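Reopening this ticket.

The earlier resolution said the output was attached, but the attachment link was broken on my side. Pasting everything inline this time so it's all in one place.
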Amino acid sequence: MAVLRIDRFVINPRDAAELINRRNALVAAVRDAVPGLLESRLVKVDESHWIDMWRWDTRVNAQAAASRAQAGGFPQAAAAFELARDVVTEFTEIVDER
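Inline output:
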């Protein structure tokens, strides 16, 4: 079953362009290293509050990528998240799509 990893966070608005650049590097690195990333979307709620959504084919692949990032396997993750504060992460199962 497909899952979404959702990260909600706050950034300084001056860091928006740099965050996007660093996140793009992270997405590319994850796609090269871990199977199953179907899409990613970064959305801005307002100038400071953002949501990053990654759609994965399975929870196993999503959590494998997360574990690798937490272990330092993706330095791009540390670089991107050093710009963020108040990060909240959720893994959610997609139960219906139309």
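Reporter confirms the inline version is readable. DSSP finds three helices and four strands in the chain. The first strand starts at residue 3 and ends at 11.
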